[in-house]
Design brief:
The complex is a heterodimer of chains A (about 140) and B (about 140). With about 140 residues, chain A is α+β, with helices and mostly antiparallel strands. Chain A has helices at about 5-30, 105-140, and strands at about 45-55, 65-80, 85, 100. Chain B has a domain at about 1-40 and about 90-135. Classes of the chains: A alpha+beta (about 140), B mainly alpha (about 140).
Chain lengths: ~140, ~140
Amino acid sequence: MNSNFFGIMDISGSGLTAERFRMDIIADNIANAETTRTPEGGPYKRKVPIFAERVENSIANYLSEAKAAGVRVIGIHEDNSPPRLVYDPTNPDADANGYVKMPNVNVVREMVDMISAQRAYEANISVISSARSMVRSALDIGRA
Amino acid sequence: MKGLFGTDVNLLSKAMDVSLLRQQVYAHNIANVDTPHYKRKFVSFEEDLRQALEGEDLPMKCTNSRHIRGTYTSINDIKPRIVTEDETTLRNDGNNVDIDYEMVQAEKNSLRYQAMSTFLSRTFGRYGIVVRNIT
């Protein structure tokens, strides 16, 4: 982790990317909350992004341990919890007993995750703006 | 340190470097607020610096590499260390980043940095006054 201003912005930028990606996934989950047909067959399955700390092994400047810089998304996990069963015999996707397998998406939970992603995004933004004011003040050194 | 600028400039620029590194670590913690099993990191520096500044002994002058060096450590030898706080857990996913704490610390650190840069700027300004008044 070299200490420079752009390093801070890169780190927070990676946070922005990750949170925006999480937001994309949440939007997908909410949009597909009632989807009973997918290319793989069966109802839509809730998706979850997997975040991991981004570790860079650059030349040690201050640290002797592995360098760390930001966050990254290492994959999308499919939630394999059982589908919600809704009794609706008129639905073309209903089984012999009249139950339809609906996606395992809980909209309330997605909304909560959405707010959390939104707040985390804002937190990263405010770190960038505080880094910006630090740059400004550093540039003002020596300016009478 | 001998030279045109005194210890204050040296010390301030060192402290600003550490402040910048610290801001980077806060940014890293905040970026990883939703990473499972992530443990927050922090910069440890001031305690080491204080020990160096209080310096139990005066530096011994060495003109040969085989001379005894004494226990004096120069400010330049003090390096900030990044420590991982892995004893605590804040949430079920093993993450221990308290976002409010990190935000407040980052903001405080940013203000401290600006205070130091203003002070450094004024210090250079005083040198400017001296330089301009030499006849």
